[in-house]
Fold this protein.
Amino acid sequence: MAINTNIDQDKIKIDEKMKKIGHKFLVMSGKGGVGKTTVAVNLSISLIEKGYKVGILDVDIHGPNVPKMLGIEEMQLAGEGNVIEPVIVKSGLKVVSMAFLLRKEQPVIWRGPLKMKAIKQFLGDVNWGTLDYLIIDSPPGTGDEPLSVMQLIPESDGAIIVTTPQDVALLDASRSVNFARALKIPIIGIIENMSGLICPYCGNIINLFKSGGGEKLAKEMDVPFIGKIPMEVSVVEDGDNGKPVLVEHPESQVAKAFQEIAKRISNYSG
């Protein structure tokens, strides 16, 4: 009985914190290397620029990269008692990540129950305050982390699934769609990332990983397609330098693509 009581108390805390957050989105991908964290970070910045209060929760326990992409790797979480204060960047974005609790290159060697406990703390013990949006960046696949989030906040607005156009990524993205459906979580839509490389010399599009696969998958699985994002050399450089492309190159085609996707998501969520 004591175990059940603790679980109930955890859920009560999480429910109370989530009531103050207007919309919760889980950013997923079927496989790694598709730019999911880049999408989550720049989508958060896009919503901030629209005047919303936004938080980003990095639940990739084993490979937390959100702080790196925001240039805040050296920051640490603070708190008192059972309350954890998120790191707040200059734009006002609130950030929580396992990376704030680790030394660089330190691995996290945990099984599922420990990961579940950490995610409960990130949701229930963090002082998120009142937010319009909480963007949750999950690791690739359909394992412990996205499952834990969906079970702990089943009232979330839904999942945003990131893929690239090549067949192997699309196959894994379809598994993410079916994963969300199995858990009765709404699917906000599919984003096709790396949808053509913009040549830095001539400006033409090179379909390095094909193009259009994400939109085709969305039609086949009867889910919304919410946008495609091209590749630019500056995106890679900005990410490595901890400077989101929306901040460093706001007039780029990539930045405009993120702004359009953020507009669609904000329209969807009211």
Q: What stands out?
A: The two ends are 41 Å apart (CA to CA). Residues 32 and 192 are 14 Å apart (CA to CA).
